[in-house]
Amino acid sequence: MVLFAAAAGGALVVQARESSTQEARQLSKGVAQSFARAPGTLAAMKSGDPTELLQPRAEDARKNTGVDYVVTFDPQGFRWTHPDPKLIGKHIYAVREGGAADRPFTRTFEGSLGLAVDTTVPVYDTNGITIVGFVSVGVTVASVDDVVMDQLPQLLGFAGGALAVAAGGTALVSWRLRRQTRGLDPSEMTRMYEHHDAVLHAVREGVLIIGSDGRLLLANDEARRLLDLPADAEERRVTDLGLEAGTAELLGSGRPATDVVHLAGDRLLAVNVRPVDPGDRTSGSVATLRDTTELRALAGRAEVARERLGLLYEAGVRIGTTLDVVRTAQELAEVAVPRFADTATVDLLDPILRGAVSAGPGPQMRRVAVHGVDGVRSLYPVGELIRFVPSSPAAVGAERGRAVLDVDLTAPGGWMSAQDPVRARRVLDLGFHSLITVPLQARGVVLGMASFWRSAGDPFGREDLAFAEELAARAAVAVDNARRYTREHTLAESLQRSLLPGSLPDHSAVEVAHRYLPALEGVGGDWFDVIPLPGARVALVVGDVVGHGLHAAATMGRLRTAVHNFSALDLPPDELLGHLDELVARIDSDENGERDHEGVAGATCLYAVYDPASGMCCLSRSGHPEPALVLPDGTVEYLRVPGSPPLGLGGAEPFETAEVSLPEGSRLVFYTDGLVEDRERGIDSGLEALRHALAGARRSPEETCQDVLDALLPARSSDDIALLVARTRLLDPSRVAEWDVPGDPAVVAGIRTDVTGRLRTWGLEELAFTTELIVSELVTNAIRYGIGPIRLRVLRDGDSLICEVADGSSTSPHLRRAAITDEGGRGLFLVARFARRWGTRYMARGKVIWTEQSTRSPAVEPEELSADALLDQWEDAAW
User: Fold this and answer.
1) CB atoms inside a 10 Å sphere around CB 91
2) What are phi and psi of 74, to 5 degrees?
C-alpha cells in the first residue's frame, strides 16, 4: 500500500506537471492567436517602424496575461519585439523543428529565455496568402515548475488521503469476499475471475446473460459495441435499452434461436439464444451475437477483387491483338468501359505514333482513342493535338511517372477550367465527377496517358489506383510492341520504296502501268522493273523474296541490282536466271557461314524480253506464278512457261525458256503471289478471279491495274502485292530495214549505198557519213572473221538509229589501240567513237554486234573530222 501511495503520489505530480504544461500550451496559444488577430497588429507589421507600434502592446499583453514573452518577427526571422530590448532586431537563426511556416504550431524548445513552451502564429495579409509576420508567445518551463511546486502539498495530501481510503476499502472488500465466497481461497477466486473475464472479453462474439425476468445481467465488451449499449445497461430490461423491436423481443423472450439475422443500426447481427439450464426456462438465457456485416463486406471486396482479376485477364487477351498503335490504344479504352470506368481516353506522344522513341514526356499529346457509354462528344475528339496545362493530371502524371487521382472534378478553380473552360462546363454538366490518369510507360519511357472517367456511381478511390496502374502497365507493353513494329515496318517500307523504281521509263516497245502495295503486317521483298535493252527491246521483271522485314527488303534491292547488271550483259532469260540463282545461293552461304543472320531462304523471279520488231517475247521463270496474257479481243490465257525451283534452292536442273508471238495491243500481266493467294483464298480460286478481272478489251494498262486491285485486293493483305501490266507495240515495218550479206567484201559498197538511201527516206541524211562508216566496219569484220549467214538490220526507234550485224560466229570483238605499224585494229575504235552505245549480244547460234546513234545529236561531217584525223589522235607513245 505504501508503494501504491508513492506511485500514486508520483503519478499525481506528473499529472499536475503535465496539466500545468498543457495549461501553459493553451495559454501561449490563446495569447498568440489573440495578439495576431488583434486590431492594429497587421497594420503595425506593415508600417514603416513595426517595433515602435508593437513593442508597447507586446509588453502590455505579456504583463496582463502572465506569459513570459511576446515576440513578433518578420518573415525573414528578424525580431520586432522582445522582453529584452537588446534582442530586438536580432535574427532567429532557424525555424523550429517540426513547425510549418504557414500555420500555427506549438513546441517546447530552448530559446533566449531558456526552455519554454512556445506557440508561433503566422499573420497573413488581407489576401490570405502572403505572410506579413509572426507572433511568438511562450511560457518558460521554470514558470510551469513553480506552479507544480505550489500544488505539491495538495497533491501529497490527496495521495495520503487516497492511501488511507484504499487501505480501508481493501480491508472491507477482503471481509466481504470471505463472507460471499464462504471461505474460498483468494488465489482460486482470482484464477476463476481471470478465466471468465478472458473468455468474455477476448471472444469476437458478443455475449449477453439475461435473467428470467428479461433483465440484462451481464454484457461483454463486444456485445456493448455491437448493440451500442449504454454504460448502465446491466439490471435494466432488454426492452428498455433502445434496441430494434425485433431484436429486443427475441432477447427478452428467452426462446432458443440459431443464427437469426437482425438489424442493429448499420450492422447485421446473427443472434443465437440458449437457456442457461435447458430443463428450466426460469433460469434465464445466454445470447451470442456475431457481426456478419464485415463478412459481407469482405465477401463484397473479394467479389470486386475477383472481377478485377477477370478484367485484367481479359485485358491481357484483348489488348495487343494487332501491331497497330492506334488500335491497341482503342482496345485499352474498350476493355476499361464500362466495368471500371464510364469513359476512357488514351493520349499518345506524336513520335510514338510514328514508331519513334520520345525524348521525354511533354505537354502535347494526341488523342488516339475515346470510348464511353455517354458524353464522349464533350471530350477532345480523336486526332486532336492537346496541350495540357501544367496542373492537369496528364501533365503531372507524365512528369512524375505515377497515376494521379482527381476525386472531385467539380471543385471550383480546378485544372479543367484552366485547360478549357467551355469544354469543362459541358463535361461537368454530363455528370463526370472523378478521374484517374495513368502514364503509359514501358522500359522507363512515357508513351502517353490513359484517363478513366466516372459519371455514375461512387467516385474513384485510392484502392482503384493500383488496378488502373496494372491495367495501364499491361496496355503500355502492347503499345510499345506496336510502336517498335511500326518503326521497323516504316524503316523497311522506306528502304523497300527507295529500292523500287520511282518511275518506269517510257519505251516504244510497251506501254506499262504498275502497282505496289506493301503488306499491312510486314514489309516483304516483292519488286518489279522495266529495263530497256539494245535493239529497241525491253525486259520485264517481277520478283519476290521469301520473308518479311528489313532483311527481305535489303535482299530485294540486291537482287534487283543484280538483274540490272546481268541485263546490261544482254543475256537470254534462262542464262540470266541461272546467274541469279548462283548469286542467291552464294548470298545464303556467306550469310549463314560468316554471321548469325537469316539467309534469303529462297526467292522467285519472272524475266521476259520483248522485241517490238518481231513481236516475239522470250520468258523464263524460277518458282514464280505464270504470267497472264490478255489478247486484243479480251481473251485471257496463262502462258505456259516451263517452271523451275525458286532461286537459291540449289536445283541442278537448267532453266528453260518459252517464246511466244504477241499480237500488237496484247497485255502481259506479271504479278506476285500476294495478289492471288491469301489465308482465305487458295491460289486456284485466285487465278480464276484474276482471269475474270482481266477479261475485256480496250482497256489501258492503268485501267487494268485498277480493275484487278478492285476485284482481288483483300481487306487485310498479309503479303506484298506487285502488279505490272505491259501493253505491247510493234515497230512500223517502214522503220525496219534488213539485208542478207554475202560473204564477199565487194558487196560492202552496195550495202552502204542501200543504207544511205534508207536514211534519206527517214530524213536522216545528216547521219549518213557516220552510219556508212559504222556499217562498213561491222559488215567488213563479219565477212572477214565471222561465219555465215550474215544479216544487217537497221532500225529507227524514237530518237535512236540502231545498226545490227549478225553472224554465226560466237567470237566477240574487243576495242584496242592500234600501233602506227598495224594494218588493222582501228575499225572498232571508230565505231565506238561515232556511236552513242555499242555492244555484243549472243544468240543460240552466233552473235549480234549492235550500235546505237542518237538522231538528235549533231552529225559529224567528213570535212570536219576525217578518219586520218581520228587515227592521228592515237599515238603509240602513249602506250
Assistant:
1) 12
2) -80, 170
Residue recorded with cell 545528216: 766
Each residue of 452-480: pLDDT tens digit? 988 887 888 888 888 888 888 888 888 88
C-alpha dihedral (552, 556, 559, 560), degrees to nearest 10? 180
Report the alpha-carbon distance of residue 395 to residue 412 in Å, rounded. 20
The residues with which 847 forms a beta bridge, in sequence order, are 807, 842
Virtual torsion, Cα 385, 391, 395, 398, nearest 10 deg: -170
Exposure string for 120-145, b = 16+ CB within 10 A, e = fewer: bbbbeeeeeeeebbbbbbbbbbebbe
The answer on pLDDT for 243 being more than 60 is yes
Q: What is the DSSP string of 334-357?
A: HHHTTTT-SEEEEEE-HHHHTTPP
Higher pLDDT, 301 or 222: 222
Grid cell listed for 465: 489506383
The amino acid that residue 216 corresponds to is: L
559 within 8 A of 552, measured Cβ to Cβ: no
Q: Facing residues of 638 across strands?
A: 628
273: which 3 cell numbers? 439464444
Q: What is the CA radius of gyration of the chain?
A: 52
Query: Helices (H) and strands (E) in the chain — how many of each?
Result: 23, 30
| Other beta carbons less than 10 A from residue 705's beta carbon | 19
Residue 249 is inside which H or E element, if any? helix 245-253
pLDDT score, position 100: 58
C-alpha grid cell for residue 136? 511568438
In which band, very low, low, confident or very high, does the pLDDT at 198 lie, cut at 50, 70 and 90? Answer: confident
Answer yes or no: is pLDDT of 4 > 70. no
Cis-peptide, bond into residue 714, ω within 30° of zero? no
Is residue 827 within a helix (H) or strand (E), and if so which, with residue range?
A: helix 827-834
pLDDT at 871: 43
**What is the end-to-end Cα distance of the chain in Å, rounded?**
135
* pLDDT value at residue 101: 67
Which residues, at least 6 apart from 751, have a Cβ–Cβ distance to it below 8 Å? 739, 741, 775, 779, 792
Query: How many Å apart are CA 239 and CA 210, to the nearest integer?
Result: 12
Packing angle, helices 325-336 and 462-499, rounded to 10: 160
**d(C-alpha 611, C-alpha 660), whole Å:** 11
Write the CB contacts of 301 (distance below 8 Å, at least 6 apart in sequence): none
- The whole model's pTM is what? 0.53
pLDDT (tens digit, 9 = 90+) per residue, 650-680? 666 788 999 999 999 999 999 998 888 877 7
**Cell triple for 757:** 538511201
Determine the pLDDT at residue 585.
Answer: 83
Do residues 632 and 663 touch, judged by C-beta distance below 8 A? yes
Concatenating the DSSP letter of every residue in 385-435 gives EEE--TTSHHHHHHHHTS-EEES-TTSTT-HHHHH-HHHHHHHHHTT--EE
Find where cell 547488271 sits.
Answer: 565
Phi and psi, residue 876, nearest 5°: -65, -20
Spatial distance between the Cα atoms of 218 and 209, rounded to a whole number of angstroms: 5
The DSSP H or E segment spanning 628 is strand 628-630
pLDDT mean over 481-501: 76
